[in-house]
């Protein structure tokens, strides 16, 4: 079995054909709180991003992979390593599953398991961190199930629709 292939999903590099999928995800206002986005992304910007997605993680300092179902090859989400710091062997990690039908189905857990193994075994990171809004119970449960530990809370860190929300930082040491 491939490093980035699980039982039900696989992770793959972004392709030019992912333009519409990434555009929809990036412009889904329900996800903006998670991604810290405040303005829509144009097709032009997404297209330019995809044209540069081939850059090595050591150059771009990030890696974004599509989460795809094995049986249908359908893209259902994205999983990212960001703020990659090879000197200190750490990176941030984030995941988003596109629609409610695909959430709570084990796809996110499988994707996270695959990317954790890749980060540890191929990128040789020593630690990963995840920033999660304190009210995002499903994400907190997902990350803590892999051993991520709460290391701090940023008070009133996220401002969304007139409300301040705390953001927790979770860390995993390998």
From TrEMBL:
PROSITE patterns xrefs: GNAT
Record-linked SUPFAM superfamilies: Acyl-CoA N-acyltransferases (Nat) (SSF55729)
Alphabetical list of Pfam families matching this protein: Acetyltransf_3
Alphabetized Gene3D superfamilies for the sequence: 3.40.630.30
Domain of life: Bacteria
Domain N-acetyltransferase: 9-170
GO molecular function, one term: acyltransferase activity, transferring groups other than amino-acyl groups
InterPro entries the record matches: Acyl_CoA_acyltransferase, GNAT_dom
PANTHER family in UniProt: GNAT-FAMILY ACETYLTRANSFERASE, SPERMIDINE N(1)-ACETYLTRANSFERASE
Protein name listed in UniProt: Acetyltransferase
């Amino acid at each position: 079995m491939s490093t980035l292939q699980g039982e039900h999903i696989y992770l793959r590099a972004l392709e030019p054909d992912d333009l519409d999928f990434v555009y929809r995800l990036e412009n889904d206002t329900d996800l903006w709180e998670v991604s810290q986005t405040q303005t829509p992304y144009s097709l032009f910007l997404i297209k330019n991003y995809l044209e540069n997605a081939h850059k090595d993680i050591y150059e771009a300092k990030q890696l974004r992979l599509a989460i795809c179902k094995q049986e249908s090859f359908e893209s259902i989400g994205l999983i990212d390593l960001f703020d990659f710091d090879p000197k200190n062997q750490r990176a941030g990690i984030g995941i988003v599953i596109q629609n409610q039908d695909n959430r709570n189905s084990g796809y996110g857990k499988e994707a996270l398991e695959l990317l954790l193994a890749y980060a540890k075994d191929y990128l040789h990171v020593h630690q990963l961190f995840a920033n999660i809004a304190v009210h995002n119970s499903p994400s907190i449960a997902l990350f803590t199930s892999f051993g991520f530990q709460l290391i701090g809370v940023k008070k009133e860190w996220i401002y969304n629709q007139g409300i301040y929300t705390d953001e927790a930082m979770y860390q995993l040491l390998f």
